[in-house]
Amino acid sequence: MANTIQDQYAMPTQTESLRTDKKNGSLGKNDFLEILMTQLQNQSPADPMKDKEFISQMAQFSSLEQMTNMTSAITDMAGAQQKGSLVQHSQLIGKTVTWQQTVKDENGVEQTEERVNEVTSVKQDGSGTIRLLMDNDQWVDSEQMIQVDAASDESEETGNNGQDSAGS
Q1: What is the pLDDT of residue 83?
Q2: How many independent structural domains does the chain possess?
Q3: Are the CB atoms for 70 and 99 separated by under 8 Å?
């Protein structure tokens, strides 16, 4: 009896070259599975792959697939969070914020100054940075904000901390 696999039971031969990930030139999970199947197909019948080796390679494949799925999920979550950030920052429209600006003095030394302005608009630029338009027509990165003041209400307008003049 010959130690060969009959053609009807053999896996089809691989006709195309291994595909690589176009982004970084590395092999993907499908390529890993194809290599494993080719290795199993072409192993020597006199010295087959041991169960431990096969289980180890299948565990590696499973880990690779899980890492790929996790990377995809994290990328999706980061994109959703970035879109949500624009909506959150839109709540600043009409509020007074304190923000920091780095300026050079007459000697060329950089100093940080605090500015106070009202936010009139919010946008997300091409790099994903949230930018705020101040009432002085200056765009500011959201990272420059250090304080957000509550919207003014009637108690602040009276100047008496909400007490009327008859109650004093």
Answers
A1: 72
A2: 2
A3: no
Residues 143, 106 within the same domain: yes
92-112 average pLDDT score:
89
CB atoms under 10 Å from CB of 47, counted, come to 7
Do 26 and 69 form a contact (C-beta atoms < 8 A)? no
Look up tokens 């696999």; give the residue.
5
* Boundaries of domain holding 38: 13-42+52-66
Cβ–Cβ under 8 Å, residues 117 and 136: yes
| Distance separating alpha carbons of residues 136 and 120, to the nearest angstrom | 9
- 101 and 141: one domain? yes
Band of residue 157 on the pLDDT scale cut at 50, 70, 90 = very low
Residue that has been written with the tokens 């990328």 in this structure: 75
Q: Is the pTM for the entire model greater than 0.70?
A: no
Phi and psi, residue 16, nearest 5°: -100, 155
Is pLDDT larger for residue 110 or for residue 54? 110
Rounded to 10°, the helix 29-41/51-90 angle is 170
Q: Are 133 and 145 in contact (CB under 8 A)?
A: no
Question: What average pLDDT does the structure give for the chain?
Answer: 75
What is the C-alpha to C-alpha distance for residues 82 and 78, in angstroms, rounded to an integer? 6
